[in-house]
Amino acid sequence: MTDPVETSRPSLDWKRLPGDRKLMAAAAFWRDGNGHAEQAEVITTIANRIKFRPKSVIAMSVEKKSRHLVALPAISEAVAARLLVAYHIVHQRPMMGRFLDALGVAHEDGLIAEEKLEPIAKERLVSAAKTLAGSYPAEDVSLYFSTLLWQDPETWGALSGLAEAPPVADPAP
Question: I need a labelling partner for 51 at 20 to 30 A (CA). Which of 24, 45, 66, 137 fits?
Answer without folding.
Answer: 24
